[in-house]
Amino acid sequence: MEALEKKWAEWAGGIAAQGKLANQGIRLGYDGCVLKSSGVVTDGPFVELREILGGFMVLRAEDYDEAVTLSHGCPILETGGSVEIRPIYPSLA
Amino acid sequence: MPVASDNQLLLKRLFQQEFSKIVAVISSRYGLAHVEVAEDIVSDTFLSATEHWTAEGLPPNPTAWLYAVAKQKTLAHFRRQGIYQKKVMPAIVSEPPPDDSFPEIDFSDHQIRDSQLKMFFAVCTPQVASEAQIALALRILCGFGIEEIAAAFLSSKETINKRLARAKAKLRSEGIRMELPSETEISDRLSRVLHIIYLLFNEGYYSRTQDEVIRRDLCTEAMRLTIFLTENELTNRPESQALLALMCFHASRFDARQTADGGIVLYGQQDARTWDAELIARGFHYLGLSARGTVITPYHIEARIAQLHCRPGDDPDKWERILLLYNQLLILQYSPAAALNRTYALYRARGAVAALTEARKLRLETSHFYWVLLAELQKDTDPGESIRCLEHALSLAKTKPERQLIEERINILRK
Predict the structure, then answer these.
(1) Hey, is the C-beta of A69 within 8 angstroms of any chain B C-beta?
(2) The whole model's pTM is what?
(3) Do residue A14 and residue B328 have CB atoms under 8 angstroms apart?
(4) ipTM for the predicted complex
(5) Distance from A2 to chain B by nearest Cα, in Å?
(6) Predicted confidence (pLDDT) per residue in B38-88, tens digit
């Protein structure tokens, strides 16, 4: 566990050292429940999905390429996970 | 030694101790808009003290004498100006005086502490720019003379006077009040106060000035102010304790990090026996206290790093821990210094190759430290490039000891 923490800190620290970590974001727990349009609440919903969202981070990058480069080295990749890279649109308000 | 010079020494010490207290009490009673009047009254009081004490000898209780005279002069001033009725009275909303007499100035211990604490928050108000705040803090909270402040900032008395005047004008125009922040504001307001003290400490520790006495004074004052905060219930919070721990650990190596003639001794060459064990112990004490809260501030992490630096020896495990802490610090708050230090820790923990890859990503070309780091990482693999980096650093370095150190390294590589 400690080794894993360290890996995450090192990857995020490397991005932060470049001044490109805008927000360290949040980490999501693996349990939870799902509210569906039918009004049914289920727990352990994640069996339906191949992947679940573990958390997010906000980076400062010039373009997609840079964002992808920064995402290399994310420890989730070592355990078969993946990193999704998406733009943040300016808020309408 | 003649008596007069004894008196002068005592006066100097008393001035340092009492200036900020008397200014705080007067400003707290009559409003911050009159802070300059308060400063004048205190100077005037010390002038009277010089005259009287030289002619008539020392009073039995010099501090009480100063308070009594300051009180008289304050009352005389506001009575003469008629300022009280016209301007001060309407401005005092929170605490109306009991009757129509002039408000009593009270120099009790409680009143002094309370006023000083209010002054901390007033001086560190976000409406004034940081650099002006440090100067203002040195003047109003530490009782520094204009000349000393000018020396600390390597600038002229005129510049400092202007800067202070602008800051005080801002206090007036923004209507900053002498009051303590509420429970909900305290965390934000305190972080501002701590930030200014942190800058003050750094100004001394990594000073631009060559004046050894002033540099030490700045660090001592910063620590004194933080100790004051930890002695007050409202401000004795984990972040204050963490900052104090950080300063204790750093200050413990103050002597070890410079040569007798003012040169820089790098960490690796420092003699651990010259580190101040008592300050290190105090650092541990405050670090322990700071860990009892629920917040982790950058001061907590920096204090832990400083503590590890106070551990003699150079094992990779120590550098691994320092690296992890720098990662955490950067995730919490970016700063170029932290980015450079993280890369240095990476170098010490994992070697030059891994560190060089990371160093190239930092893009801190305007910092001479960046070029020194790049040079260090390539000294074995590419001495020629290493020298070029050092030459670049030399063109950017600001102080003489830094330039000396860089030149020494170039000479070693050229051999």
Answers:
(1) no
(2) 0.85
(3) no
(4) 0.83
(5) 11
(6) 999 999 999 999 899 988 888 999 999 999 999 999 999 888 877 656 666
